[in-house]
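User: Good morning. I'm curious how 6-phosphogluconic acid would be positioned relative to this chain. Could you predict the structure with it bound?
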Amino acid sequence: MNINIYKTKEELSDNLSDYVINNHLDSSIAISGGSTPLLLFKSLSTKLSSSKNLDTKFYWVDERCVPPDSEESNYKMARESLFVNNIFNSQNIYRIKGEKDPFEEVINYNKILRDNLTLDKNIPSFDLIILGLGDDGHTASLFPHEFKNLRNKEECLVATHPSSGQKRISLSEKIINNAKEVIFHVTGAGKKYVIDEIINNRGNYKSYPASYINPKSNNLSWYLDFEASEMLTK
Ligand code: 6PG
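Assistant: Good morning! Here's the predicted structure, ligand included:
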């Protein structure tokens, strides 16, 4: 496990975007939503602003079951900050259709993954998955309250947000752990305790879905800003 700590979230995004550009422009990448990735997306699209129709294949770690123009849509955030000026070939952007019935879209997205990704032990394998982390230890849309019942799912699944009840489509633990490389991209003091528990296997770590992200490739990295890493450096 590699832990990379940067003074600020801006410095983190600058370094992580360099890493993605130098190592993964030909990759199949699953990206997360929420607020953390925005700086990374903007850094990537700024550095690649003179490129056109790059072949990078993009998928989502999870999506809220809302229309693509909803303020809650992970796709909307990426479309406005990363997929700008035809930098990437739009044919290679595989969005989860949040506007569809969740139980239909999960079947559709599983087929997209199986048709477009290499299979490793009959499970689709991403080249890179970039995950966020909630302060309750969730990652993707794998939430503690229902995680135990979802662990046997192969690829994509339908999840439920614990407080809003909002349906989500999410990659499963199994497909995340089948990736060639997994990166946790986490910033802010609000995550420092959960990061410490997960990385040091203490406190409530066993109840956190993020604790079960251990890719069999052993290629797992954390990209943290100083605030998020504060407990680790004590
Ligand atoms: C989502 C994300 C989710 C996110 C964490 C962290 O759809 O919300 O995929 O797993 O990564 O909740 O969210 P922040 O980046 O907003 O802290």
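The first helix runs from residue 9 to 23. The mean pLDDT is 97.
Let me know if you'd like a different ligand tried.
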